């Protein structure tokens, strides 16, 4: 099975969105560069951000998101973002009315079941868990192998926390990688496992 990675853009004070669920300037680095990040032409980043982000995105086999993110993104119009093959939605509810059953979205009740389903779907590829409440739940459950943060130089003051409402301290290893892009710093940490 592949790695489970918690991922998201985050303000320097630890938020992934403001109180109204708006990311504000957190995604500016994704559209402010001169190197196309995907085939759509909208996402354009610096060369350093491309060299860090594109290889990671190419390794993702499935993404786990919460129902809140799914609804805010209007179900991604039934197409997984960034070329990901499958999206697993943590939800007590099934798909929306009129949802295309052929769309590669899977609705699973509970974060542990969602990560398990995503691991099967991803095979040896990476399972990405979105930052926020779902990511924090996965971290609390011991399911996350690595944390990736795109740290943006902005202070939001309040909003949705990167780690959601984690219930205990979690130690991370020293950064494996720190890459400076334009208006973003990419940081990657392995999750420290308790000694046996």
From TrEMBL:
This is Dihydrofolate reductase. InterPro entries: DHFR-like_dom_sf. It comes from the Bacteria. Gene3D superfamilies: Dihydrofolate Reductase, subunit A (3.40.430.10).
């Amino acid at each position: 099975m592949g790695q489970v990675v918690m991922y998201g853009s985050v303000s320097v004070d630890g938020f992934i969105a403001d109180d109204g669920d708006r990311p504000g300037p957190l995604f500016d680095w994704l559209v402010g560069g001169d190197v196309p990040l995907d085939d759509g032409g909208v996402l354009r980043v610096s060369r350093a951000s491309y060299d860090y982000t594109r290889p990671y995105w190419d390794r993702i086999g499935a993404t786990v998101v919460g129902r809140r993110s799914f609804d805010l993104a209007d179900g991604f119009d039934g197409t997984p973002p960034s070329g990901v093959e499958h999206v697993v939605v943590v939800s007590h509810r099934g798909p929306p009315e009129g949802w295309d059953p052929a769309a590669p979205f899977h609705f699973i009740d509970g974060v542990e079941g969602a990560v398990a389903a995503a691991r099967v779907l991803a095979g040896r590829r990476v399972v990405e868990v979105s930052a926020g409440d779902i990511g924090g739940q996965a971290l609390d459950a011991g399911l996350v192998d690595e944390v990736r943060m795109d740290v943006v130089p902005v202070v939001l003051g309040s909003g949705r926390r990167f780690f959601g409402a984690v219930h205990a301290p979690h130690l991370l290893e020293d950064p494996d990688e720190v890459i400076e892009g334009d208006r973003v710093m990419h940081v990657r940490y392995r999750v420290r496992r308790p000694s046996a």
